[in-house]
User: Fold these one by one.
Assistant:
Number 1:
Amino acid sequence: MYLIALCDDETVELNKTEQMLNNYEKKYPGTEFMIERFENAEKLLDMVREKEYMPDFILMDIYMPEKMGIEAAKELRDMGNQSRIIFLTTSKEHALEAFGVDAVQYLVKPVSEKVLFSMLDKCLEKVENERRKYLLLRIEGRIRRILLSDIVYCEAQKKIQYMHLADGTKCQLRITMTEIYEMLSSYREFVRIGVAYIVNLEHIESLNAQDVCLNTGKKIYLPRGAYKILKEQYFCYYCEEV
């Protein structure tokens, strides 16, 4: 499922864009959109501030009363929102500004179904590739996108869980180790060591029967019986990689 926000001050344009998205779903039955409509930029910004709303895509008009789409996009980026912004507008005048706020597309109205579908094909393919590489996690009250390869290990310290990243960042997570592992277990590089650790095999520098040394300098002592299983996982992972 993809979350899509439509932001336009003209109801006719909202209806037209939503109908084209519905047609796209019909053309590709495996694709599902959850669409939210906003009649002005402030309503969208309020949703992001109050509910930490982060849709996969924001299709937004540039020319709106009270607050222009470019201005709203800048505020979204300042809040840390990483949604993919697609501007729908009647003029090419703001194209350079649009890409200054990391807009992924700039479509000039009237937007045909053919043009929108072509854009969606490319964007959805990129999203699927990124979803295989990133996790979205709530950290310190904000939604953050974490690159999988940056995760070195996760650990449980009493009732608190931490995720350690390659740059030395230590992130506190308000979910259980079981929930963390459920998110990571579909990726072959992540293995569980006992009940307290989840380790990224890509960051293991060496291991023996007593401990694992990570490339950050961290040493994790192995619980009894863990070495044999970990060694098999480690060699299986790298042999298959080759």
Note: Helices lie at 11-27, 41-51, 69-78, 95-100, 113-131, 177-184, 226-241.
Number 2:
Amino acid sequence: MNMKRQYIILAILTTLCLHVSAQGFHTGYFTDGYLFRHEMNPTFENEKSYFSIPAIGNVNAKTMGNFGYENVVRDNPLYPTLSTKELTTFMNPYLDNQLKGFSKGNNKINAQAHVSILSAGFKKFGGYNTIELNVRGMAYGKIPYELFELATNTSNKNYQIGDVAFMAQSFAELAIGHSRQINERLRLGAKAKILVGVAQASIEMNDVTVDLMTQDKWTIHGDAQAHVSMKGFKYKSESKEYESRPGSYKRVNDVDIDGSGIGGIGFGVDLGGSYKISDDLQVSASLLDLGFISWSNDMYATNIEKDFVFDGFHDVDFIKAKDNHATHQVDKYSDQVSDFYNLKDMGDKGSRLTTLGATINLACQYILPSYRQLKFGALSSTRLQGKHTWTEMRLSGNIEPLKWLSGGASIAVNSYTTSLGWIVNIHPKSFNFFVGMDHLMGKFSKEMIPLSSNASVSVGFNVTW
């Protein structure tokens, strides 16, 4: 399979269109009857045994970020009278405010996916046990404001850009968990995970500075590196000439994937505990995704020339012409980003080890003494992912007005935005159905892409007994 020039631009454009999730549905952390609380803390047990309906038992989708599709893709001001609006990008010089909505610091996006292929939970062996087969994926991006400013080419000045970083990985996990009551107040739980890696990629350009040479040429200095681990993956190169050096050399401009399969094997654990201070007050904590994947290959590329000439980014209008459809536009942008990174294929460097990125959850729950069907909770979550680390603080209120019906609402402040969440959980004797969001969705484009990078949905149907 030939993937046309999208291996780098993927992080800039495609991640803005992702609609996938972080591990765990945080609004459901304190919700009675929500079967998958054990994903956020392996200590939690369910009153019932359950078996998930394959592939629809637990689908959880969420993105978080401080910029999004609406900042990158705009209505084209050159065609304001058309019945069907044409689109352009923020790089279009005819826009009144090209950099509207971009953060003055680092612009970040975080997207993760978690789908349960199979999942079951039951009481046995002196506690509660879970068995899961999940498919997960995650992507992170960090782009300094100055890079977007350079892309508009309006200031014609020197730029101190700093670090640009992207990471993505996908894997399957087989997890076996067990939790048990230690005494009247303390309960502990753990999960062991076998991980099967599909692909992992990280692209970084550190300490980037851009110095103006002429009106439309800059000298770029920075240390760029790309690591890709995936079975059958190869870089493709073309000869490229640069003013900064005589002659030409081969520069990465494409990738090729020949076949697919297992890219790596790893191991991980989840650890958790809860402590009942009183009948009304309980605290809990968990450490999730403490583990690694050993990948069988490391396709490495770097910019041999740390200083080179770059002639800038150029806007490509989103128009209806047959030869300028979306795929063609992505190819053109990818060429420009390839020039910016200036990577050279260094071949396969052998195996490498990557971590999952651990999550720390700390929580406190209070049950209202006068009406015990109502409780309140506070949940602090921190994802440790190097340059892509994020934190969140969420307050929840949950109610169970009927034995078969529970729900709740939450409000959160995280590293990207403020969120409102909700959950409805229907759990009679024979089945469990839940639906909710950690972040209320805003407006969508006509292509049904969320305009903001903050969106969430969680849904699942399971058999219980």
Note: The chain is about 5% helix and 55% strand.
Number 3:
Amino acid sequence: MTRADCIRELLAEYGNQRARNELELDERIAEAGAKDPEILRLREENTHLAFDTMKRIMATGDPEACRAMAEDMKRRGQFNNAEIRRRLRQLGLPEDYLELRYRCGICKDTGYVGDAPSRFCECFERALRVRQYEDGSMAGTDEQCFANFDLGRFPEEGGQRAQMKNLRRFCEEYADAFPNTVLPNLILCGGTGVGKTFLLNCIYERVVSRGQSAIRVTAFRMFEAMRRQHFSDGSSELDFDQLLSVPLLLIDDLGSEPMMRNITVEYLFTLLNERIAARRHTVIATNLSEEDLRRVYGERVSSRLLDRSRCAVMKLEGKDLRRL
């Protein structure tokens, strides 16, 4: 995906976020109005007050009269707003309950800041950097999310459906609790086509939809970031630093990356060690068993991958869904 494609996608997502902000405000207004109808009346009065005052100002050519009408509108509006805030407090609600809420208060979820020519907000630039880590092999989160999780695809034979029901619940609770999970790290291991990547994508979608920061990469893209870090001359931004610092890192298909001497194992150890020390969360999907992880990466890496005091290891068993 090109940078231009990522920008178009993100701008559409920011537009959707603004629509959600408006919908949530409408719901809060309805809730407060149901408890105290006078709040709705005062808000409606403010609306008519502004409209009627503008009509009166446009109908008169007396500057003094226009200033007086504007001052009167301001005074009455301030009085009504103070009364609305008082009534909200009486309901046990915050004074700003009927104001729009934004994920980013700087750009107000537009993605832009500054006067013309405007520029991308830092929140947008950060999301853009994260988006550019992903490659075309990763499914869209509109397809692979908890809302689209169909247990009917999993055969009942051998308990595979019951297993996935439990795993879905566990992963959804992990995503909803983030960053306050019981254990920070999670490994999904099992054979091909049993649902590991789908669960990883579901966690990613739920976490980012809640406004949290996460990076989702394939193991190959992770390796590319390691390789660039190893050979970098310091003249460009280092992708590996983002993998170290992002609050939630999700790595798909660990074990499929190239094994390059002095890079793969060494940098994976650094990545895991730094993230553990900083108490950051990591989710991994892999076809490798615990024994395979120890054999491929050695004791130093596997001891951090499989530390039960920090990591939940979930084993997926069953038939390859792609062959059913």
Note: Confidence is low (pLDDT under 50) at residues 233-238.
